[in-house]
Amino acid sequence: MSPAATTDWKKSAKFTEQSVEQGSSRVSVLPEIKGVDSLRDVSYNVDLERSVEEMAHIISNMETQLERVLLLNSVLETDLNASKEIIANILSEKEQLAKKIVRMEAEMPSKREFQMEIDQLIDERTAVQNKVHELNARYAKLQESLDESRSKIARLETEKEDAVSEINFLEARQNATRQQHNNLQERIDQLKEEKVGYQRKIIVLQEECQKVMEDKYSLIKELQEAREEIADLRAAFTDNKVRVRKDYYASADLLRKR
Asked: Backbone dihedral region of 109: left (phi > 0), alpha (psi from -120 to 50 degrees) or beta?
């Protein structure tokens, strides 16, 4: 059955059900003829005029119900015609489906081909399962290697932190040593400058000392010469003194002799 025919059939069936339900409800609500039972009871005293009015009212209601039943009958006939058309479409589609099924059965492979395909699929499944087992084994090894690598990385991270701490300590120590070296270098440069100054002073002092020594030797020589001159003068003075004494004594002797 085509989707359009199925939709039309459902709509028609739904409309028919609604119409039947409406007709049933309308038939069920027909007013009861109260005067009939009263007319049958001869012993009951009935007001004929009132009974005639009720009968006329009941007849009017029955005519209205009859019109509604006729309308419902017309609707049912319309639904019946639509149902016949839908059934014809269904039969046509059924025939087409039967032909299609026959054609598909003719095109379907044989049981042997199915078995061969099933065997091939089983072989492929077995190969895939073996591949899966192999991949699981490789995955387990990779996971083990990964865990080992993670442990090694954690150990290396710890060693790295220790190395960084040691490097920081050595850098601080190196900076302190460099500062001390700079201070010592400045002191060495200062001492070198002082050494150069002292060397210059030593040279000047050596020159002055050499000059003093030369002056000393010159003074010693002059002193020696002065001492020799003094000695000569003393000797000459002594000789003169002896000679004077001799002359004095000689003069004194001469005076006495006179």
From this structure: beta
